[in-house]
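Hi everyone, sorry if this is the wrong subforum. Our group has a chain we'd like a structural model of before ordering constructs, and none of us has done structure prediction before. Sequence below.
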Amino acid sequence: FEQFKQNARMMVRNAIRCGIIEKLSCEVCGTDQSVDGHHDDYQKPLDVRWLCKKHHAEHHKNLKQEE
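Answer:
Right subforum, don't worry. Here is the predicted structure as tokens:
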């Protein structure tokens, strides 16, 4: 599982650098500061949701509460 995560992150970094995908603003608040790509499925490495650090952390917190 950890290998999937590492590969997906690397593919996103490379795709941004090559211009294949564009890093966007946070889909929740619209900021363009400290935005991360969030993977709902690491087997779809270029399918990311863009979330700022705050909303990314909140998303993971909500996921843990659902378990």
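For your construct planning: The mean pLDDT is 94. The longest strand covers residues 35-39.
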